[in-house]
Amino acid sequence: MARDANLNAYQFFEAVARRGTITLAAEELGVSPSAVSQQIKALEQQLGIRLFRREGRMLTLTMEGEQLFQASATALRLLREARRNLGKSREARRLALRVSPSFGVRWLGPRLSGFLAQNPDWDLRVDAAPDPTNFDREIMDMDVRYGFGGWAGLHCAPLLHDYVVPLCSPDYLAGLPTTETATERLASARLIDSARALCQWDFWLWRAGLETRSNRKGILMDRSSMALQLAADGVGVVLESLTLAAPEIKNGRLVPFLPAYPVLSFPAYWLVCPHRHLSRRTVKLFLNWIDSEIDTFRKDINTIIQDHGLRCEDVDAAQEMIRGGSRG
């Protein structure tokens, strides 16, 4: 088996490819031009390809050389970043976290001031994005991921439930005609969908045993935060979770639309990370803090449910939504 070239060979190659001449690369690296030439020659011999073409005094990359340069530049950049991070103070605590946008804005964001007050020496990065982290390619400690769980090859533990219920503003509710049945009341309302929500209107109606006309009035919003804002502004009825809507419920901007029907509860927010990340001290400290926040939040949810005369019902969301034909 051929022995891999040493790291110096790739470092010298990357410098020559970037600077265009062996002389300039040698000056940057603090070595002699002959040392650079020897490393490039050895690398070409080991790989069995030409990496450069000479054009006057300049060297230009071959097609194979361009491929190797892109890979080498990326690898060396990652190594330099890792070395800089390791060289900083060991007392500094850094945490990089990815969350879904609406969760980051509506649940986590308002609580972070308390976390930072308890941990003033932390460097914290919160990346609010719908796409999950590729832990093999991205520098991220963990995700708080929205979904049904079960991501293969990763540690996956439930953090928070969704508590799904139809909601609208008090003025919108008062403006609807008085009817005797839930079906009639729904038929007179404009239904707001959160496109990325796990629980969609089709599933909720199926599970409740209710029907609406196929040409019902509806609005589809890309984010839960946008859908909740529309409902609070009196535009229609949104099917959303108390997890995100709790502030509007507390201040009276939103109320349950059909309080006789149960609040559907299921795990929706998950801690996701490689198993090895659980041993990181910053991850442990953050999880202790967020667990405490979640305990307090559950008490708030129970108070909301009791104050509005609601009842909560646990569902196997993943299985039931498939059977019910939900778009979520």
What descriptive keywords fit this protein?
328 residues; alpha/beta; Arc Repressor Mutant, subunit A; D-Maltodextrin-Binding Protein, domain 2; 3 domains; 10-stranded mixed β-sheet; two-stranded antiparallel sheet; 12 helices; 12 strands; 46% helix; disordered C terminus
Secondary structure elements and their pairing?
Layout: H1 7-19, H2 22-29, H3 33-47, E1 52-55, E2 58-61, H4 63-87, E3 93-99, H5 101-118, E4 122-128, E5 142-146, E6 155-168, H6 170-175, H7 182-187, E7 191-194, H8 201-208, E8 218-221, H9 224-232, E9 237-241, H10 242-250, E10 255-256, E11 263-273, H11 281-307, E12 312-314, H12 317-324
Parallel strand pairs: 3-4, 3-5, 7-8, 7-9, 11-12
Antiparallel strand pairs: 1-2, 5-11, 6-9, 6-10, 6-11
Helix pairs in contact: 1-2, 1-3, 1-4, 2-3, 10-11
Protein name: HTH-type transcriptional regulator PerR
Domain HTH lysR-type: 13-62
GO molecular function: DNA-binding transcription factor activity; sequence-specific DNA binding
Please state the CA-atom Rg, rounded to the nearest Å: 28 Å
Approximate strand percentage: 15-25%
If helices are DSSP runs of H or I spanning 4 or more residues, what is the number of helices?
12
First-to-last CA distance = 51 Å
Number of strands: 12
Low-confidence stretches: 324-328
Biggest beta sheet attributes: 10 strands, mixed
- Return the CATH topology of the largest domain: D-Maltodextrin-Binding Protein, domain 2
Helix- and strand-based class? alpha/beta
CATH-defined superfamily of the largest domain = Periplasmic binding protein-like II
What's the rounded overall pLDDT mean?
A: 87
Report the principal-axis shape: elongated
Per CATH, which architecture of the largest domain? Answer: 3-Layer(aba) Sandwich
Helix percent band: 40-55%
Number of domains: 3
CATH class of the largest domain: Alpha Beta
User: Element order, helices and strands?
Assistant: HHHEEHEHEEEHHEHEHEHEEHEH
